[in-house]
Amino acid sequence: MAHAQLLVFLVPMAFFLKLATPVDGAMAMPGCPDKCGDVAIPYPFGIGENCSAINLNSYFNLMCNGTFHPPRPQIREPEAHIEVTGISLERGEMRVLSPVNHICFTSNTTSTKSSGVGYDLSKTPFLPSPSRNRFTVIGCNTLGLITGYRGASGQYVTGCYSYCEGINSTSDGAPCAGMGCCEASIPANLTAFAVTFDLNHSKVWTFNPCFYSVVSEVGWYNFKKQDLVGHLGFIKDRAQNGVPIVADWAIRNGSCPEKGEKEPSSYACVSANSYCTAVINSPGYLCNCSEGYGGNPYLSDGCQGSAITQIYLNFVTY
Ligand SMILES: *[C@@H]1O[C@H](CO)[C@@H](O)[C@H](O)[C@H]1NC(C)=O
Ligand SMILES: *[C@@H]1O[C@H](CO)[C@@H](O)[C@H](O)[C@H]1NC(C)=O
Ligand SMILES: *[C@@H]1O[C@H](CO)[C@@H](O)[C@H](O)[C@H]1NC(C)=O
Ligand SMILES: *[C@@H]1O[C@H](CO)[C@@H](O)[C@H](O)[C@H]1NC(C)=O
Ligand SMILES: *[C@@H]1O[C@H](CO)[C@@H](O)[C@H](O)[C@H]1NC(C)=O
Ligand SMILES: *[C@@H]1O[C@H](CO)[C@@H](O)[C@H](O)[C@H]1NC(C)=O
Ligand SMILES: *[C@@H]1O[C@H](CO)[C@@H](O)[C@H](O)[C@H]1NC(C)=O
Ligand SMILES: *[C@@H]1O[C@H](CO)[C@@H](O)[C@H](O)[C@H]1NC(C)=O
C-alpha cells in the first residue's frame, strides 16, 4: 500500500470524555457562557465568535451541540463532529474524543475498507501531545502504521507489529509489547497524521476478525483478550464514543516578546500579573498567571490574588 495515498483519508480532528471541572465565572469572557453542558470553556476558547479569540485562531470558537443532553462542546468542522471533553489553561491541553481506525475480515480473502482516521491540524492551534499519547495497534498478525507530516521536517512514518497465534496466546493486562497489541510513541510537531494498516493477514480472521489502531491518551488502553474477538467488538465494548486524545494547544502565530521588546499587536497575555511561556511541541506560546495569582491570564484582570488559585481546571489523568 502506498503511504502517500493514506493522507487522502485525512479528515479533521475527533471526539470526548467526562472530566470533573470546577467552574468559575472569571474563566470565560464577561457576558459569555463559561461552560457547555458539563465542560468548562475558558477563554481564549469560547462558544461563538464574540466569545472566543477568533482573531488568534478561528478554532478557539467551539460549538455547543444541544442535540445531546447535557449539551457537548465540539470543534467546528464541517465534516467531523469532534467532541471536546476538557480544556486546561494551566497545561495548555485539550482532551478530545477520536474515532477508532479499524479493518475487518469477513473471509480469508475479503475485508472491509479501512476506516482511515486522520487529521490535518496545520490551520488549528492543536497538535497531539507526544508525551501524553501513544499510537496503539490491536490485533493478531497486523502491522499498524501512522503516517504524517512534521511541519518543516517533512513526511513521517512509524508503526508497530502485533502477533498472536490464537486468543489464548495473549493475556489480559499484558503490556502492549507485540502480543495482541503493540504501541509506538509519537513525535512533536505532528501537524497531520493518519493511521492505517499495511498487511494482508487474512489467516487470523476466524478468531480475530478486526484490527484496530488508535492514537490515544497514555494509560487509557489496557489489553483485554476480548478486544480481539467479534466484529467491531472492541469499539462496541470500550470505544463507542471514541478514544481520548490529549492535544497541546497554544497561541501559534507569535512568540513571547524578548525582554524590552514591544509586545506583538495581538499579544494574548493581557492580564496584569501574567507572563508568557514558550511551548516545546511546536511554534507558539502560552500565558500563565504570576506566582501567587490564579485565574485566566488571557482576560484583562483575569489573574487574581491567591484566594482563587484553585479554580484551575482539574485535568484528570489516567
Ligand atoms: C457579534 O458582535 C457583533 C458586534 O457587536 C454583532 O454585530 C454580531 O451580531 C455578534 N455576533 C453574534 C454571533 O452574536
Ligand atoms: C494570527 O493569525 C490571525 C488569523 O490568521 C491574524 O488575524 C492575526 O493578526 C495573527 N496574529 C499575529 C500576531 O500574527
Ligand atoms: C451535533 O452532533 C451530532 C453528532 O455528532 C451531529 O450529527 C450534529 O450535526 C451536530 N449538530 C450540529 C449543529 O452540528
Ligand atoms: C503555570 O504555572 C504553574 C505553576 O508554576 C505550572 O505548573 C504550569 O505548568 C504553568 N503553565 C504554563 C502554561 O506555563
Ligand atoms: C481461503 O480459504 C479457501 C478455502 O478454505 C482456501 O482454498 C484458500 O487457499 C484460502 N486462501 C488464502 C489466501 O488463504
Ligand atoms: C489478501 O490476499 C489475498 C490472497 O493473497 C488476496 O486475494 C486479497 O485481495 C488480499 N486482500 C487485501 C485486502 O489486500
Ligand atoms: C482458551 O482458553 C479458554 C480457558 O482456558 C478455553 O475455554 C478456550 O477453549 C480456549 N480457546 C482456544 C481457542 O483455545
Ligand atoms: C517543532 O517546530 C518548531 C518550529 O516549527 C521548531 O523550533 C522545533 O525545534 C520543532 N521541535 C521538534 C521536536 O522537532
Radius of gyration: 21 Å
How does the helix and strand content classify structurally? mainly beta
The percentage of residues in β strands lies in 25-35%
Strand order of the largest sheet: 3-4-5-6-7-17-10
GO molecular function: polysaccharide binding
Organism: Oryza glaberrima (African rice)
Membrane topology: Single-pass membrane protein
Signal peptide: 1-25
Model description:
The chain contains two helices and 21 strands. The protein has two domains: 3-10 and 97-243, no CATH class; 25-96, no CATH class. Helix content is 3%, strand content 32%. Strands 3-4-5-6-7-17-10 form a seven-stranded mixed beta sheet, with no helix packed on it. The protein binds 2-acetamido-2-deoxy-beta-D-glucopyranose (8 copies). One 2-acetamido-2-deoxy-beta-D-glucopyranose is lined by residues 90, 92, 277, 286, 288. The site of one 2-acetamido-2-deoxy-beta-D-glucopyranose has 4 residues, from loops.
Q: Which secondary structure elements does this structure contain, and how are they paired or packed?
A:
Elements: H1 3-6, E1 35-36, E2 39-40, E3 46-47, E4 61-65, E5 72-75, E6 82-88, E7 93-98, E8 101-104, E9 118-120, E10 126-128, E11 133-138, E12 142-149, E13 155-162, E14 181-185, E15 192-197, E16 210-217, H2 233-238, E17 243-249, E18 274-278, E19 285-289, E20 293-295, E21 303-305
Parallel strand pairs: 3-4
Antiparallel strand pairs: 1-2, 4-5, 5-6, 6-7, 7-17, 8-16, 9-15, 10-17, 11-14, 11-16, 12-13, 12-15, 18-19, 20-21
Bound molecules: 2-acetamido-2-deoxy-beta-D-glucopyranose (NAG) (8 copies).
Protein name: Wall-associated receptor kinase galacturonan-binding domain-containing protein
GO molecular function: polysaccharide binding
Domain Wall-associated receptor kinase galacturonan-binding: 32-96
